[in-house]
Design a protein that fits this description.
Blueprint: H1 2-24, H2 27-73, H3 77-80
Length: 81
Amino acid sequence: MEDRLAEVELQREGLQELIATLKDGRGAEKVAKWQARMETVALENVRHKREVERVKDQVSVTYCVTFSILCILFGIFDTYS
């Protein structure tokens, strides 16, 4: 429910900003700024996705190494190889 409320509030603020822009006559300048912000956000999103994938890979490798070490320590490595 809070997510929906935040979404509606964000939309309302966006519409207010759009209306103000249309009234003050600086529409092209504002649109250029919005476009730049959207590009920045999209680029950050791609970077975050790549970082998440990198961390997932690191976790996977760490898990495999830890499992192998435990198998060696407990002498059960031959059972799983």
